[in-house]
Specification:
Blueprint lengths: L11 H19 L1 E4 L10 E5 L6 H8 L5 E6 L6 H10 L2 E3 L6 H12 L3 E4 L16 H10 L3 E7 L1 H4 L12 E9 L1 H6 L2 H12 L3 H8 L28 E4 L2 E4 L5 E3 L15 H17 L6 E10 L4 E13 L3 E6 L5 E5 L8 E2 L3 E6 L2 E7 L5 H19 L1
Parallel strand pairs: 1-7, 2-5, 2-6, 3-4, 3-5
Antiparallel strand pairs: 6-7, 8-9, 9-10, 11-12, 11-17, 12-13, 13-14, 15-16, 16-17
């Protein structure tokens, strides 16, 4: 290997020996119905962008490009998981700090291009809270324009309903995938930034519940509502927050005893509130928006904060204390013992990646800070609040 070589293509034997097992796994687990392009005939470097609905999406992308190998781009924190770090080394996954200008990651991406490889990425960088696609950023479009290589698109449908972000138990119904050419090389030369970003956003957008209304596929599983309270925290009946609780196929408010039942299609059975978890989630966004516009937003949580140490290759505890939203402009953490502070300006923060019922993450200066909340149910509200603050800023600028 050359001394200045930053990245290689994925391990040849691992990729080809793993393919039949992954294909069988996806068929058994998801009942995947895949329409492929013949990537054997597609020569030279290219990019594949994918909708991000579930943890299985990279596997779906991998078999969609076979026999060609993909260098995926992955969030930096995943490389601190012992199992994943070994797997990612074999697959030569490119680590990247989310929502930051990561120069080293960009150099590795360009090196894959020079090797004639395929770069695989999911532009939104995180799983959807409730089955709706998110927008990309101008930085991705700028990268594609700089690379000037064909861009393909992986469409996935049904994966969120098979494996919701919040769920403990997976469901089995159907997942559909297909690949198409999205942006030919010449369009990256002639189209402007805004037009290309709109094109990508249009492709990335999806609404799993609208898709399901047209298809009505049964997704079988156990305890279909389990952990749903980790994204649906505000009772639509009495307005109380963080008093929802799930059991079996039900989600209930512990204060007013409101009770909704979810069915095998992913919808709530007949009730006077919502048709689906998405409708309930949108209701929460609207309530947060009202709080922001009326300057009534209060967000304060007990938390432990952790951060990856690049020298020790371990995730280390930095402190324990209170994390608070200050005037809708900053997130401030104060350690209860040392009184040290961590301050995060929300000026350009588009969203907070979070693990439902556990934590949220925020990046700063090529570092990642994970806030593990004492009440994990609060993590989704942190995410919603930051997203709505960012959207309000965009509206004020337009």
């Amino acid at each position: 290997m050359k001394k200045n070589q930053l990245i290689k293509l994925p391990n040849f034997l691992f990729w080809h020996l793993g393919y039949p097992f992954v294909k069988i796994f996806l068929k058994l687990k998801l009942n995947l119905k895949s329409e492929k392009l013949n990537f054997k005939e597609i020569k030279g470097p290219c990019v594949i962008l994918g909708k991000h609905q579930s943890i299985y999406d990279p596997l779906i992308m991998g078999i969609s490009s076979y026999p060609r190998r993909i260098n995926f781009i992955g969030g930096y924190t995943y490389f601190y998981n012992n199992f994943l770090s070994i797997l990612f080394k074999l697959l030569q996954v490119i680590p990247k700090f989310q929502y930051q200008n990561d120069i080293l990651a960009m150099r590795k991406i360009m090196e894959v291009k020079e090797k004639g490889g395929i770069i695989g990425l999911f532009p939104t960088g995180r799983l959807p809270s409730c089955g709706v696609g998110q927008q990309t950023t101008d930085s991705l479009t700028k990268l594609l324009i700089k690379m000037k290589i064909p861009v393909y698109f992986l469409n996935i449908e049904g994966a969120y309903l098979s494996s919701p972000k919040w769920a403990v138990n997976k469901r089995r119904g159907e997942v559909h995938s297909s690949v198409c050419l999205l942006i030919p090389e010449e369009k990256l030369v002639n189209e402007n930034l805004e037009a290309l970003t709109r094109l990508i956003d249009k492709k990335l957008y999806y609404n799993e519940y609208e898709w399901q209304k047209k298809n009505m596929i049964i997704y079988k599983g156990k305890n279909l509502a389990e952990k749903l309270e980790n994204i649906l925290y505000k009772c639509p009946s009495c307005g109380t927050e963080f008093m929802t609780k799930s059991y079996n196929n039900h989600i209930q408010c512990r204060k007013c005893r409101m009770d909704l039942t979810i069915d095998e299609y992913g919808f709530f059975k007949e009730n006077s509130f919502f048709d689906s978890p998405l409708d309930w989630y949108i209701y929460q966004e609207k309530m947060v928006n009202e709080e922001i516009r009326n300057n009534q937003i209060i967000l304060k949580s007990k938390a432990k904060v952790y951060s990856p140490n690049q020298k020790t290759k371990k995730i280390e505890l930095l402190g324990e204390g209170i994390v608070e939203l200050i005037k809708g402009k900053e997130i401030v953490f104060v350690d209860s013992y040392s009184k040290d502070k961590l301050i995060f300006d929300l000026k350009n923060v588009q969203s907070l990646p979070y693990r439902a019922g556990e934590n949220f993450e925020i990046s700063k200066n090529m570092g990642i800070y994970k806030f593990v909340l004492e009440n994990g149910q609060e993590s989704v509200k942190w995410s919603i609040v930051v997203e709505q603050i960012y959207k309000e800023k965009l509206k004020s600028l337009s």
